[in-house]
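Note to self: user wants both folds in one dump. Writing first protein now.
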Amino acid sequence: MIDQPPNGLPRYRVLTGPDDEAFCRRVSEAIDLGFRLHGTPAITFNGERVIVAQALVWPPSAEK
């Protein structure tokens, strides 16, 4: 099992962006790499569109 995230990525990440298919794909790709969701998403409205944020963590090898 891999102890560190691939490609030099940090163990903790927060992805943000418009609530659209591209954002969902970015989160899905991180999950496919082995990251786990951390907490619930944050959602806000910037006056034009809905913006979301999702934290992800790389689990310790014992949890994988």
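First done. Writing the second protein, which came from a different request thread.
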Amino acid sequence: MTVLLDRPAAPAAPPRPSAGAPASPPKGRDPFVDLLRVLGMALIVFQHWTIPVLSYDGARLTTGNALATPGVWVVTWLSQVMPLVFFAGGAANAIGFARSREGTPRWLAVRLRRLAWPLLPLAAVWIPLPQVLLTLGVPEQPLRVGAQLTGQLLWFLAVYLIAVVVTPYALRLHARFGVAVPAALAAGAVLTDVVRFTTGIDALGYLNVVFVWLAVHQLGFFYAEGRLRRPWALAAGGFGAAALLVAFGPYPGSMIGLPGAEVSNMAPPTLAMLAVGLGQIGLAVLLRPVLVRLPLGRLLGWASPRIMTVYLWHMPALFAVTGVVVVLLRVDTPAPGGTFWLAGWPLWFGLLCLVMWPLTRIFARFETPPALPYGTAGMRAMTAAAALIGAGVLTLTCVGFAPGPWAFLAMLAILGGLLVTVPRTRS
């Protein structure tokens, strides 16, 4: 990787005491970073809305995956864009931290609130909703599937929360060791998979939640400094390594989990996922001169403040349409790729957009939390806030919003973390 990334240059001025931030961050918003974030979330939503194969027998909702069709897995090497989302997040965090003049605790407080605040309306709806719908006679199994999957998607927030919290320290390591940091994380991913597949203990693979996603997040720091060189080599090396790993290793070709697969490249992430992520980053940076010239300014301006809302509410929109079409009207989704599937897909997608539009209008206002008052905040308080919010989000990821006490307890932890982010006001 040393041929792809420049070594750190001697800083022109000493870095701020809190961490080693980029010496020359871009001025103004970077349209490329905004585009990757918006495009990444758009592709995630598009994929989640397109791939379900749903049927209902009167008691049980069965879910399948259109990408399980033989040969279609290659699409996931581009459609699984979570590596690009973490890469863009790393660049945005590096740029934002470099511009911050209020200290690390205040910077963390703002980021934690932006991540956690949009969860409040989601919980306000989904904690009581299953109980209400059960009382109204909605079948329990489809309702439980929807409530659990709505929470499972929050895994991204749990991992991204880790990336945000470690950003000040990761920047310090970046300033001192440069390319050695993502290289060490990649080595950790290699070691994790070797131990996992040789021992057969799949739970060990979850160490790669840190190694894989923080590795691509760390590469965002190099982009923020303009030091991500030779993107063609990164693309060729990443996709080439992924092809070798799939051909000769224990890795499936699909970069998303498929029903019945013994191994998933996504849960937990694998070395193959990291390789595809490197390929995607190289390809995206290679295409940057073309992408930034696209007339997408107005679209990005509208979509950027609504990304989190769309991510949190696109699955509830899917379950609302599924509840009416599949469960109530008993219209199963057709076989993927067939004539009926192709003919019905525009109507399916249109119904989803019709439901998503009012949800976006109602809940997008929660993307911006109330401004923090002036005051002092300490790292101990921010560490406690991150721990509470992380515990709450992780609980929701594991159990979702299914009926029971866990979702309520998880939201109490998140509310407690939000309260801790409020600094002590000066007298």
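Dump finished. Worth passing along: Confidence is low (pLDDT under 50) at residues 7-25.
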